[in-house]
Design a protein that fits this description.
By secondary structure, the chain is of the alpha+beta class. The protein folds into 2 domains: 101 residues, no CATH class; 96 residues, DNA polymerase, domain 1, CATH 1.10.150. It is 42% helix and 11% strand. The chain contains 9 helices and 5 strands, in the order αβαββββααααααα. Strands 1, 2, 3, 4 and 5 form a 5-stranded antiparallel β-sheet that branches. A hairpin with a 2-residue loop joins strand 3 and strand 4. Helix 5 runs antiparallel to helix 6 and helix 6 packs across helix 8. The radius of gyration is 25 Å and the shape is elongated. The N and C termini lie far apart (93 Å).
């Protein structure tokens, strides 16, 4: 199985941030060619069993990613290793230039290798909240709204949108789904989505929280209702 660079960029299983590669082998027992193959001479590519793993430094941490296709590790053929080296070099170049987008190269995925959806992320986020029951009920209501609200011209639910493809326009379109919602409810719903996407950014599933570009709605200020003369006199008397 061989992959081109575009395929390698999108068939990757994310792992947690890891410490630099460590081995119990004596370096004198490994040839230069084998070191290059194992990724210890600076090319950012290493062979791990029957898989290829790339690694790079991001924000002071060593990040490792195993290349996969359809949930299956990409085998370390010469062609695949060459493409992986070019991918690793491209990533390092973009990091140095300040243009690297983690989620562009490594979108969050489920165990089956398919992209994580907005709805799935919201469910996970809601499940780990430590809040009062009344607040939990309000958050759950907001999550149900976002998961069901149409977000595009096809009427696709926002919850089914791949997390890494979420756009501010999707959120704005979803809000038109329930035009009767008052400003306070809309703002509460936006707050829930914003907080959930903040976690996605912290997890490197998103590069930026686009929901922060959604403005809160202004709540109408009630008109003053002064006392009538009779009411004033009644109060005084």
């Amino acid at each position: 199985m061989h992959l081109n660079r575009q395929q390698l960029r999108h068939f990757v299983e994310p792992h947690a941030l890891a410490a630099p590669y460590a081995t119990s082998f004596n370096r004198t027992d490994i040839s230069t060619a084998e070191e290059e193959r194992m990724g210890r001479r600076g090319n950012g590519v290493e062979v791990c069993g029957n898989a290829i793993r790339i690694q790079f430094s991001l924000n002071g941490e060593v990040v490792r990613r195993t290349l996969r296709r359809d949930s299956t590790p990409v085998p370390p053929s010469e062609e695949n290793l060459g493409e992986a080296k070019r991918l690793a070099a491209e990533i390092r170049s973009r990091i140095a230039a300040g243009t690297f987008c983690h989620s562009e190269y490594f979108p969050a995925t489920r165990k089956d290798g398919k992209p994580l959806t907005v709805g799935e992320h919201l469910d996970v986020w809601l499940a780990v909240q430590r809040i009062e029951p009344s607040t939990a009920a309000a958050y759950a209501s907001a999550v149900r709204f976002w998961k069901c609200a149409p977000c595009d011209d096809k009427g696709s639910p926002l919850g089914e949108c791949a997390l890494h493809r979420l756009k501010a326009s999707h959120v704005m379109r979803a809000l038109t789904f329930r035009p009767g919602l008052n400003a306070k409810t809309v703002n509460n719903y936006v707050t829930v989505l914003r907080r959930a996407m903040d976690v996605a950014v912290a997890d490197h599933a998103l590069e930026d929280n686009l929901v922060r570009h959604i403005r809160y709605q202004r709540q109408p200020t009630p008109f003053p209702d002064p006392f009538t003369r009779d009411e004033v006199e009644a109060l005084i008397g």
